[in-house]
User: What shape does this take?
Amino acid sequence: MGKIAFMFPGQGAQYVGMGKDFYDQIPVSKEMFELASKASGLDVPALCFEENEQINITEYTQIAMLAAEVAMLKAIEEKGLKPDVTGGLSLGEYGALTASGVMSAEDVFKIVRKRGIYMQEAVPNGGAMVAVLGLDTAVIEKICEEVPGMVTIANYNCPGQIVITGEEDAAKAAVEKLTAAGAKRCVPLKVSGPFHSPLLTGAGEKLANELEDVEIHDIQIPYIANATADYVTDKSEVKTLLEKQVSSSVKWQQTIERMIADGVDTFVEIGPGKTLSGFMRKINKDMKVFNVEKVEDLTKLDELI
Assistant: This one.
């Protein structure tokens, strides 16, 4: 059998009720939700399980999503399954950091709470993100460079799906040019800021200050960083890469292609939704993909242990 990768989704996949069955049925998962509450000063189970509007606001979405992901990860680890490599999309990189042993769950929760606040504060009004479907990446990059104002690529998700980010007027101008160039669709994303754009540089700097006091442990399981689509081999690079990640492009397609080139043939998506599994079908449909977002999904992993 080839290698196994754990992958963790980012914002956008959240929903009320995510992880509740893990909280109710698996003690180690419940511990993680409670640890997230202690570390963040929020009632994370209420945020995840009870109807509320905060769950879709970045400041709260990030800690809620991560709590659900880490709760599911710990349940998988308790079964005895460990990956050969790990990675996560944007926020999901913090799930990967936990799986790799680089940061403790408590520290990850503390940092992500701050990350959500700083990203929310950085551009409270204005800014846009748009998914561009069915257009060559090089064409999108060229148009972003030509448009007046700030607009760049936020996410290289998969072939045929790129997300652009930046100032609202610049994004609108880019959409006009992208449509004229043959994009099948340009879909505005329901987000509260132009994430993964240079406009978020200040948020990354604030995050770097918070990271100064966080202990970075030896890398137990290799992980690939969003900003470089490459393995992090030296733990001293971790903090710099996390600062950079806030304002730079997420190279997800390149991350997955790197894993596949290194012999990974089985991917386990851990967290709400099936976003990353959808990307995988477009990156390489020959890979085995498992999803874990419900307790019952854990039995699917038996064949991997």
User: Anything to note?
Assistant: The longest strand covers residues 151-158. The radius of gyration is 18 Å. The chain is about 45% helix and 15% strand. The beta strands are 3-8, 85-88, 128-133, 151-158, 161-166, 185-188, 224-225, 230-231, 264-270, 288-292.
